[in-house]
Amino acid sequence: MSTEIRVPTLGESVTEATVATWFKKPGDTVAVDEMLCELETDKVTVEVPAPAAGTLAEIVAKEGDTVGVDALLGNISEAGNAGPEEVKPKSSAQAETSEAPAASGGETMPIMVPTLGESVTEATVATWFKKEGESFAADEMLCELETDKVSVEVPAPAAGTMTKILAAEGSTVEAGGQLAEMTTGEGGAATAPKEDAPKAEATPAKSGGKDVEDAPSAKKAMAEAGLSADQVTGTGKDGRIMKDDVAKALSAAKSAPAPAAAAPRAPVSADDASREERVKMTRLRQTIARRLKESQNTAAMLTTYNEVDMTEVMALRNEYKDLFLKKHGVKLGFMSFFTKACIHALKEVPDVNAEIDGTDVVYKNFVHMGIAAGTPTGLVVPVIRDADQMSFAEIEKAIAEKGARARDGKLSMAEMQGGTFTISNGGVYGSLMSSPILNPPQSGILGMHKIQDRPMAIKGQVVIRPMMYLALSYDHRIVDGKGAVTFLVRVKEALEDPRRLLMDL
């Protein structure tokens, strides 16, 4: 039996790609979701995972060939895909439980870590939706993984029963690693080691004040290293200490600077300590913290301010919003105006759209606009590629679609990489004034703020106008003060007289 390897969906309006690299040769063994080849389109690189485990039997589209969507790339022979190389040695008790599905026609199949995205090599198991012994349908969500920036759901490769979970919640797994074992077909329910769970619950060990049992391997490692449970931060479910946590604690202890160099916590009374709650930072929050601090440590960051009278933009929006929605199927917001205004200004001040690479300045002759979006798990910055070539309607549709995917945690790593400039709208939360932090390696970020009626002097008369403060944070190593001020003035001019955008003035 063989499985076809076909070209996946390449993206809206993209119809063909070039086969860039094959990572496997005919005859090589492959696991489910293991990367087989890489395709290049006009704008993005697409990785093609293995649809099934087995052996790469044939490569139809060679490196350098141009292929269309759903074109045949190769074939996988599934014979022996549950062979000895994929089934770990079992104890006698486990061997007994794995014989039942064989009798009923079930087949043991690994559940693997899917592709996590470019440059992402590991993830944390956040939640298992299925327990050992539970059955599920093909493509039903089995668990959720958390990477530095996005959450990745792992679907069932086939219908069956969860036989054994190898990566518990809180554990770190590598790309291409194995998460669990399942048994295909309806006979797999007999393989679940149902008696294991009650044993774990019947003997909870209080460790470090927690009513949870730490991993046996972790307790052994702590005993050998002379560490107590309160010296190790548990990343497992409910704070359970895993073996990796002990290794990290030992590594941190060896590499940590002298205690005097660390910023100590303020003294906490016993009464206050009992009312505190300690929660481990998510991988996303840790990444946000690290990147923002790196930005401050690396760039010579400076912020300049201006204000814009939003009268004309608001009037134009109110006049055409109904017609715009009727024709394009998307609401006309302020973000498309700001995006267009920034693109206009970036053409005049290209330094703000450039980045530093060692001793070189890399000027971008395109605009990949990052739009900062707040989500329940933290701030992410989806990127609208080639925004300088898009219409108002295309920009609004892209912002709406990326924003919805960001809130649902569905953004891929590729969708958050490659930005050349960023817009952050703190005004939606009521911010009147702030200094945004650069999104490295970019050299500029525009902060939008709340629109507030203020008295303004217009032609000798005091009138009430809807005003917004703008803040441009920039890397002073590459952008001079004159360029930064010029950029903000051009944005202000374009927004106060939107006709300038049509005339490219």
Automatic annotation (TrEMBL):
Q: Which UniProt keywords apply?
A: Acyltransferase, Lipoyl, Transferase, Tricarboxylic acid cycle
Pfam families assigned: 2-oxoacid_dh, Biotin_lipoyl, E3_binding
As recorded in UniProt, its EC number(s) are 2.3.1.61
A GO biological process of this protein is: L-lysine catabolic process to acetyl-CoA via saccharopine
Reaction catalysed by this enzyme: N(6)-[(R)-dihydrolipoyl]-L-lysyl-[protein] + succinyl-CoA = N(6)-[(R)-S(8)-succinyldihydrolipoyl]-L-lysyl-[protein] + CoA
Q: Which cofactor does it need?
A: (R)-lipoate
Question: Which terms does the record give in the GO molecular function aspect?
Answer: dihydrolipoyllysine-residue succinyltransferase activity
Enzyme type, top EC level: transferase
Renumbered to this chain, region (Disordered) spans: 78-109, 184-239, 254-278
Pathway membership, UniProt: Amino-acid degradation; L-lysine degradation via saccharopine pathway; glutaryl-CoA from L-lysine: step 6/6
What is its biological role?
E2 component of the 2-oxoglutarate dehydrogenase (OGDH) complex which catalyzes the second step in the conversion of 2-oxoglutarate to succinyl-CoA and CO(2).
Mind telling me what this protein is named?
Answer: Dihydrolipoyllysine-residue succinyltransferase component of 2-oxoglutarate dehydrogenase complex
Recorded source organism is Pseudooceanicola algae
